[in-house]
Amino acid sequence: MPDPKIVVVGIPSGCGALRDTTRLTPAFFRQNGLIDLLKKKGLRVQDLGDISIPRNLPRHNNPPIRNYPSVRIVWNKIARFLKPVFRKNSG
Questions:
Q1: Residue 44: partners with Cβ closer than 8 Å, 6 or more residues away
Q2: pLDDT tens for each residue of 65-76
């Protein structure tokens, strides 16, 4: 059985979160050795970098989804970015 391949993609966005610092998470994981740690465990890792997310997304606090317009924008960007990744790695 071939060793697993892990594809790492950063989503630097805080939309929908209580704190905007969530957008810093992908850089934090990389700077603190996530990729190297996975490779040391014998895993094949491909880092595709971060998805480009605008910083000034629309915000609102109306239920049921906090900041829905910005969350929807990020969902669409993720889907467009990952579509070719899933196509390439399926089958």
A1: 3, 4, 5, 6
A2: 677 788 888 899
